[in-house]
Prior knowledge:
By secondary structure, the protein is an alpha/beta fold. It folds into three domains: 18-148, Rossmann fold (3-Layer(aba) Sandwich), CATH 3.40.50; 177-297, Hect, E3 ligase catalytic domain fold (Alpha-Beta Complex); 314-435, no CATH class. The chain is built from 14 helices and 18 strands. The protein has helices at residues 31-49, 73-83, 95-98, 102-113, 133-164, 188-202, 207-216, 229-236, 282-299, 337-342, 354-365, 372-378, 407-410, 415-435, and strands at 18-26, 54-63, 89-92, 118-121, 126-127, 177-180, 183-186, 245-247, 250-252, 260-262, 270-272, 314-316, 323-328, 331-336, 352-353, 379-385, 389-394, 399-403. The longest helix has 32 residues, at 133-164. It is flat.
Amino acid sequence: MKRTITKIEAKPRLVSKTKVAAYARVSTGKDAMLHSLASQVSHYKKLIQDNNDWEFAGVYADEAYTGTKESRTEFQQLIKDCKTGKIDMIITKSISRFARNTVTLLKTVRELKSIDVDVFFEEQNIHSISSEGEMILTLLASVAQEESRSVSDNMKWRIKREFENGVMWGGKSSLGYKLVDKKLIIVPEEAEIVKLIFQLYIDGHGADSIRKILDSKGIKPMYTKTWGHSSIMKILKNRNYTGDLILQKTYVENHLTKKQKMNKGELNKYLITDNHDAIISKETFEKAQAIRTQRASKNKSHAPRQQYPFKGITKCGICGSSYTRKRMRDKLVWVCSLSARQGQEVCNAKLVPDNIIVEASNHILGMDQYDDTYFKSKVKTIIVKPNRLLEFHMKDGTIINYHWEHPSRSKSWTPDMKEKARQRSLLQHQGGKQNA
Length: 436
């Protein structure tokens, strides 16, 4: 039999394109810098799309972040997308745009190199995945980091000179004042609120009482959602309202972390007297400080702070706030902290007697007597729900519900009824484990 051989031409092999993304960043939110960022994004988008061997994988851009920080949102998303195979190569303008911290740079480059992702630095004309790439990057990144330190030192010197000359650096508007060209200008209607807060405090009202009075008068805070204890105390402690100004109350830890810290004596502070128009007199301010000190001294206890078993574990099922322990007449109860501070119109969560939580814990864990160590080894959180329901979230992932009765009703329980309730809780716990 004669055989016929038919030759079939192989289809040309498709060459996969390199998935290329770009990373851009500016270190300040000023309009000029944001315009520069927009230009960078347009440039990279066109550059990648015009290359037939490349597939556009996006442009990742961060605004107003320093290159020394690893917490840049877009930067972190870029790394995440590289790990999931969405990107083969990253293009960025320079080492300093990518990272000024040598450790951050090398750590990131090595991490990307291990998954075969290349980083191309335009200004230095370096591919990180090349054999000599890491050595050159180490040297250049060290130079960039030193440049960052030098810029930081120069800025600190400049700020120090301005402080010594009584010039504000940074700062922001606060209730009563608007910051204009580094000067505090009084906002009359806000200044009246500040005066009222100081007067109420001197008249004997505490921060919580002042909050309720402001709310009853329909006076809304300017820079927070609601009046709170801390926001009112912050106003009462602010010397700026006397016309004096204290400079360098905060400082930047170092040029790498850029973390701002409260100045507790690490650096000099500068007091500029009669720097701007006062809202209250110095006498009024000092009188308020004397009252604050007296109250703090009265409330201060030198005894070790007592730790209560359910503190930090019991949460409100309505607003999510922690429950706090209080003494009401002759009994101990746990109440929602938000409801206690701002009233039931904000959160209408109900209080729970301390002995009820103890009783519930004993039933659920099968304890004859409450054992705090054992309790904390088993229970993660207690959520206080409406309709007298306690929701125990166990550390093994199960959730056990416990309905409690008012103390007057629970007293009528017979030992047999209590035992049956305990058995139901145990069965529910065991069933929850099987379903987990």
